[in-house]
Design goal:
The chain has 343 residues and is an alpha/beta fold. The protein contains twelve helices and 16 strands. α12 links the parallel β15 and β16.
Length: 343
């Protein structure tokens, strides 16, 4: 088969790769219905995150089970499944506490931009639907694999509750779905930070009540003006830079909560500033597996449509154009369709 490999800065190739096989008895092999490019894939693509060798890419996926190992009990060939970017046994003490992305057996997925995928720890990583879903729901089901689950964790970690005021820092796919998540959790006011009209429009569709385009001190001042000088109850930080984290801390009212899910790059916090800010700070790799059953159900029931974040759909063999489009901000998020998927 052919798959996606990153060779270096902005050097993405679609080339021959070994077809995955069962290597452990807890594995499953999937024929992917769709995959996509994540904003976090752009860090190594841009050369900001170094790679030591040519690296297979992709960690978001959904599809049909082709084969399972002899110890897999709950997942069967022929089922449609969605899985997290982090594998989990879903039985260890950390998983039982709801942090499957830090499972003692965790592996991070990294070869999903291809037609077939091996998923370790299949029973604890994958969630199956009762029937094969209609093709029009595939984009939204794919979104649950990472970007929706991550946005949902941001809302959960930021303790968004009915009637609260939430701020979302970041207008990429995760930020936009953090807006959706805050809305689903009952936030009365949702402020989205965005400078881009197309993303502002989608943020409003997902539930944003206010848009703030300013950044830095001006951004903080705008947030304070909207909240009578106090700041917000909850901040969902979905970028991962020094500027975005400081923006989050300074926009939160004392006693408020910050859920940070942007993968940090160059972030260093001032302990004294954090001490006197009097805020709760909680984040990390999203435990998507904790939320997958609920998120898949919301999609299947037609309650949410997170697939709207995919504003570019390309055949898998045009993956390099998908990266370029996201790098140049011509696309929010690129969905890659496999040969059999007509999306």
């Amino acid at each position: 088969m052919k798959g996606t490999v990153l060779y270096g800065e902005r050097d993405i190739r679609f080339e021959d790769r070994p077809e995955p096989t069962i290597t452990k008895p807890t594995d499953a092999i999937l024929r992917l219905s769709a995959t996509c490019i994540c904003g976090s894939d752009l860090w190594p693509y841009r050369g900001i995150q170094a790679i030591a060798q040519p690296t297979p890419m992709g960690h978001e996926y959904c599809g049909i089970v082709e084969e399972v190992g002899k110890e897999v009990k709950s997942i069967r060939p022929g089922q449609f499944v969605v899985g997290s970017f982090a594998t989990s046994d879903n039985t260890c003490v950390i998983c039982r506490h709801g942090y499957q992305s830090s499972c003692v057996q965790r592996e991070f997925m990294s070869t999903a931009q291809a037609p077939y995928l091996r998923v370790p720890l299949a029973d604890g990583t994958l969630v199956a639907t009762s029937d094969l879903p209609p093709k029009e729901l595939i984009p939204s089901l794919l979104a649950t694999s990472d970007v929706l689950g991550t946005g949902w964790f941001a809302a959960d970690a930021a303790y968004v509750k009915p009637g609260s005021t939430a701020l979302v820092v970041g207008d990429g796919a995760v930020g936009l779905l953090a807006v959706l998540s805050a809305k689903q959790k009952g936030a009365e006011r949702i402020i989205a930070m965005s400078r881009h009209p197309s993303r502002q429009k989608l943020a409003r569709e997902f539930g944003a009540t206010d848009i703030v385009a300013e950044r830095g001190a001006e951004g903080v001042a705008a947030i304070k003006e909207l909240t009578k000088g106090v700041g917000v109850d909850s901040v969902l930080e979905c970028v991962g830079t020094q500027e975005s984290m400081i923006q989050a801390i300074q926009s939160t009212q004392p006693g408020g909560y910050i859920g940070y899910v942007g993968v940090p790059h160059g972030v260093s916090l001032d302990g004294e500033q954090l001490f006197f800010a009097h805020v709760h700070l909680h984040g990390g790799p999203a435990p998507v597996r904790r939320y997958l059953p609920e998120l898949v159900r919301l999609v299947l029931d037609g309650k949410i449509n997170p697939g709207k974040v995919f504003d570019l759909i390309l055949p898998l063999d045009q993956v390099a154009e998908g990266y370029r489009a996201m790098d140049e901000r011509r696309a929010i998020k690129t969905l890659l369709r496999t040969n059999e998927a007509q999306l």
